[in-house]
Amino acid sequence: MVKSGIIFGIVGFVLVLGSAVIFSPLCAPCWGLILGLAAGYLVGVFEKPTNNSNVIKRGAIAGAIAGGLVLVGALIGGIINASILNPADMAQIYEWLGVSGYSLDQTTIWAGQLGSAVCGGLLNVVLMAGMGAAGGALWWQIQGKNKPAESSIQY
After folding, report:
1. According to the per-residue pLDDT averaged within each range, which of 74-88, 89-103, 129-143 is highest?
2. Does 139 fall in a domain?
3. What is the CA radius of gyration of the chain?
4. Which of 103, 102, 122 is nearest to 25 (CA)?
5. Domain range for residue 51?
6. What sign does the dihedral 115-117-122-126 (CA atoms) show?
7. SS (H, E, C) 32-75
8. Is there a domain that residue 153 lies in?
9. Residue 155 counted as domain residue
10. Which tens digit of pLDDT belongs to each residue from 5-35?
11. CA–CA separation, 14 vs 55, rounded Å?
12. Does residue 127 form part of some domain?
């Protein structure tokens, strides 16, 4: 479960870091759905647990491990994004969207970026743990319950 969590945590770190820099840290939960499910499924592939509850529990832990690494990626992406944005650019974006009367300063931009990174990242840890459990259950339904019991294998 640790191996699966770290693999998808690194993949998620890179994806969330990139999307947080390009768009916003709020994009992180979108990646969590796919990566959490994949982390839980990969636990079954790697460990081949003997019962459904075992693979579900291990899948949830792998998803939470991956979610922790994704949280770090969202925070770094939020820091980079906040350092790139400036109030003049934000005013132009608001004007282009037809919103008037808003004035942002650099402190507000930093608070918004870091706040959304923390909230989105914590949501992602929970989301990825749940999807990891679902991925483990999915592995059990597809392959786990169909494997022969170890006591019935003839050598």
Report:
1. 129-143
2. yes
3. 20
4. 122
5. 2-145
6. positive
7. HHHHHHHHHHHHHHHHCCCCHHHHHHHHHHHHHHHHHHHHHHHH
8. no
9. no
10. 999 999 999 998 888 888 776 777 788 889 9
11. 26
12. yes
